[in-house]
Amino acid sequence: MTEVVTVLKELQGPRPLPLVREVVPADAFPVEALGEVLGSAALAIHDHVQSPLAMCGQAVLAAATLTVQGHADVEVATGQVKPLSNFYLTIAASGERKTATDSMALSPIRKHESYLAEIYQAELPRFQNDMIAWEAARKKAVTSNKGNRAAVRDALNGLGPRPVGPLLPMLTCPEPTFEGLTLALQLGQPSIGIFSSEGGQFIGGHGMSAENKLASAAGYSSIWDGDPIKRVRAKDGVTILVGRRLSTHLMVQPDVANLLLSDALLADQGMLSRYLVTAPDSRSGQRFSRDPSPDSRLKMMAYENHMHEILRRQLPLAVGKANELEPRVLRLSADAHTLQNNFADHIERQIGPNGELKPISGLANKLPEHAGRLAGVLTIFENPDAHEISQDFMARGIMLAQHFAGEALRLFQGARIDADLRHAARLLDWLHNSWNETNISLPDIYQRGPNSIGSRETALHLVRILETHAWVVKLPGGAVVGGEPRRDVWRIIRNS
After folding, report:
1. What is the Cα–Cα distance from 12 to 241, expressed in whole angstroms?
2. Residue 11: pLDDT above 50?
3. What is the tens place of the pLDDT at every residue in 367-403?
4. 205, 162, 167: which is closest to 184 by C-alpha?
């Protein structure tokens, strides 16, 4: 009897410890900073879809960025001229209605893509006929002059340049490789976006694979900075593209986001500091059946009409170029310049030793620029003819930048938790939700457990982590599990 009591006390053990610190609740997304049209659209989508409001706000802000980024650049307080482009990342679990939210926010852009496709289909036959005629004339110019170099040259010069086809009617693409993106920017619209409600396809795709990740990240970072795209390939030759703009909005599940945000290579390269991340709390259990407010439809109509007005505007192109942007520069008003400088000084103090923003210093160093870009997006969206960013718009840009900084503090640190702890947490979840017996043995784990555990050594390592955190207790002498006598057996602690 004494031995039984001793074993029971050992099994009770200490209170289990959490493997991963719980993430604090998300701060409210500053919808008021978006302005009347965008803010109302975010609320309308929230009403229709019942997805998290932060997701709705992020979706319309990203769509607006894509819409206006080709029309202007912004001069930040340092005097540098930067694109209005931004990279957005929204983190939400499956079932949070990412696709429905993205679909409503991008509906004006999808309609404009259809309009561009109609133009493309109408112009394509003329281009194809012109190309056939040009190639035939070129062949004749060479053959009819019988090797006379000067005559052949003069005849070819008389042909004029090779015909240029209509621009590809694509404003968004979900998962391009960097090479594919370069081709799209060479042959298509000069301002496009990588938008996907299943962003894991992009993050886990060929372009971000281990062998391509660094080159792709460097390329995307360079485009974000507004630098020309330069590629030299043995087969394709030299490609230099200037005057191109790219924005992104990826909606991803938490596990996929952790892979991205915990990637040391992407952090060191600087790509992560270019992402504006939000991860709203789940709305599961709150989305009961009801009809949207009649006012929501009116708000969406105002948003769609405003977007269409901007999308139909002619982009500012370099002289003689079909798809090379030459945007005007948005200057800062004196008050906006002072406000951005004050914000930059505030951030600088926060990234010093023991500063609040020290853990996200990469992003924090870019926050003043992020604020300027966001202020520029809001300015051009509300007034496409604007040439200056006012103090009010800069204040709104700073409000959004501060939200993204707060989200980064919550999320970037959580994503950098030791990988072993994450694997142990997955094993614990499997033990609690998929394994029905009280005890577990090593063969049960590596033969039947999560796919990521494929060996005895891995299983033993993770079980020892769970043992350290008091989620399992080793049974002296083993036990019978699943009808089989096992030597190494642990009792599972199913609640704390």
Report:
1. 67
2. no
3. 999 999 999 999 999 999 999 999 999 999 999 999 9
4. 167
- Our measurement of the distance from residue 93's CA atom to the centroid of its chain's CA atoms, rounded to an integer in Å, reads 15
Q: What is the pTM of this model?
A: 0.81
Six-digit token pair at 189? 């619209």
- Are 329 and 75 a contacting pair, CB within 8 Å? yes
CATH topology of domain 31-112+193-415: Rossmann fold (3.40.50)
Written out in words, the top-level CATH class of the domain with range 2-19+419-492 is: mainly alpha
CA nearest neighbour of 220 among 238, 208, 236, 210: 208
Which residues, other chains included, contact 24 with Cβ-Cβ below 8 Å and sequence gap of 6+?
Answer: 410
Q: Where does residue 167 rank: exposed (0-12), middle (13-18), buried (19+ CB within 10 A)?
A: middle
First CA to last CA across the chain, in angstroms?
Answer: 26
Domain segments of the chain as ranges: 2-19+419-492, 31-112+193-415
* Mean pLDDT of the 427-437 span: 91
